[in-house]
Amino acid sequence: MIAQRSAVNFIVLKVMAFYLIAAALVLAIFMVVSYHVLLSQQQGGLAKLANYVETVLSIKRMSPVKRDNLISHYLDDNRELFSCVALKNPRSGNSFNWVNPATEQPWREGELHSIALNASSDILLVQFNHLSMVGILFSQFGITLFAMLAQLALLVVLIWVLVRRSLRRSVFRFVKELSLINLKKPTPIQYDSSLSQFIEYRQIIGIVNRVLLSLARSREALAATNEELEQRIAFRTAALASKNKILLELNQQLSVVANTDALTQVYNRTRFDQLFSENLAFAQQHKAPLSILLIDLDNFKKVNDQYGHQVGDQVLKHSADCINKVVGQNGFVCRWGGEEFAVLLPYYDIELARCKAEHIRGSLARSRNKAFDLTVTVSIGVAELGTDEQSSEVLKRADDALYDAKAHGRNCVVCAKCPGPDTQLAFGEMEKLNKITLDAEQAPNLGGSKA
Question: What PROSITE patterns has UniProt attached to this entry (predicted)?
């Protein structure tokens, strides 16, 4: 992660670094120039000394002592430049030797400068003051360094005050304006009067304003696009809802067509088989009673032969309506085939199922319909699901009970015997064994005759 730092401090540190680099370059140049100035001073001092000595030696009547004194005085006046001076005459062997009393440095072979004098055969040996170069450099360097440090301190104070107060205030104001921009309705940023004179600042503000303008246009275009998309979505949603409604209605119609008998409007055989399988599994899992009624209209073939199939269809519709009203929400009614109906009764044991079958038989016998003047009688076989019994087995027992009812005079209810060793209801066993039939006068057969 990149460390965060203040822009003002960064600018101040950069300015100080550049100033120190410039100061180092200036000091290096100053030292080089000072060195060359010192060399020129030494050469000039050496030439002047040689001229002075030649002048003194050119005086014929001057005694050697006085001559040496004059040269010594001259060297004493210029002792900040010379360390040791000697004058040698190879012929006479006379010599002059002067040592700077302030430094008293010995002769150093590598630093000797010899000059042959033109006016005489003497040789002038000179050794410059070793401290003179260092002294000149450091005396001037100290003054220069002090001036540069003072200038640097003043510059730092001015930059710190001016930049920190003006630039930071302007930057903070600029950042505050950026933070207050309404992104929903962006407006251009106004120029700061104190910074508008700078080209860079105006360029930055110009770029930001162009970005804001582009953002505003983009938001407008996006809003228009969103509105158009919402309209399209609303239109498509309405169209889809309408189609879904149509499909739902069609599915409901298809479900009715697929599961309902077209004539009687009760469940068909396919749907009844599904309901029977589901309720049989539930009853076996939860040990709940489950009964089934198989109902057959008595002498229905005679009705078709005597009155025609249209009347027969009306009889089937009327019978299905009566059975549906009696069963209600307590069971499921289906057209089993031809003139036969089946009724599935969850939570009904054999006794309750027998009572419901008697209710159905009596309601049909007492019912009347304007479309035909006939008495409808039915034969009903009743069976209750036994323990671990399959659907085919209970249907077989109910069908056998129905045949027994038809064989014993029709217009009656017969309960099938339970598959176990013990009967579920004594009355059911009695019904199975004795084949109880009802009196024909109480409920006459369909068509007015007994089988």
Answer: GGDEF
How far CA 76 is from CA of 41, 180, 184, 271, in Å, comes to 17, 81, 90, 141
Q: What is the pLDDT along the chain (451 residues), one digit of tens a residue?
A: 455 556 566 676 777 777 777 777 777 777 777 778 778 888 888 888 888 888 887 777 778 788 888 888 888 888 777 878 887 877 766 577 888 777 777 777 767 777 777 767 778 788 877 645 455 556 556 666 777 777 777 777 777 776 666 666 767 777 777 777 776 777 777 776 766 666 777 788 888 888 888 888 888 888 899 999 999 999 999 999 999 999 988 888 787 778 898 899 999 999 999 999 999 999 999 999 999 999 999 988 888 888 888 888 999 999 999 999 999 999 999 999 889 999 999 999 999 999 999 999 999 998 887 767 788 899 999 999 998 889 899 999 999 999 999 998 899 999 998 775 444 333 344 444 334 333 333 333 333 333 2
C-alpha span between 449 and 451 (Å, rounded):
7
| Residue 306, CA distances (Å) to 302, 313, 376 in order | 6, 13, 15
Report residue 290 as tokens.
């489950």
Single out the catalytic residue among 220, 227, 339, 393.
Answer: 339
For 92-103, letters b (16+ CB in 10 Å) and e give eeeebebbbeeb
- Per-domain residue ranges of the chain: 7-133, 186-259, 269-434
Q: What is the DSSP string of 247-304?
A: HHHHHHHHHHHHHB-TTT-SB-HHHHHHHHHHHHHHHHHHT--EEEEEEEETTHHHHH
Two structure tokens written together for 438: 């009802």
Is 339 labeled as catalytic in the residue annotation? Answer: yes
Indicate the pTM of the whole model.
0.46
Cα(164)–Cα(150) distance, integer angstroms: 21
Burial of 185-201, coded b for 16+ CB within 10 Å and e otherwise, reads ebeebeebeebeeeeeb
Structure tokens at 306: 């005597």
Sorted by sequence, the CB contacts under 8 Å of residue 279 that are 6+ apart come out as: 290, 344, 346
Q: State the fold for domain 269-434.
A: Alpha-Beta Plaits (3.30.70)
Structure tokens at 112: 């000797």
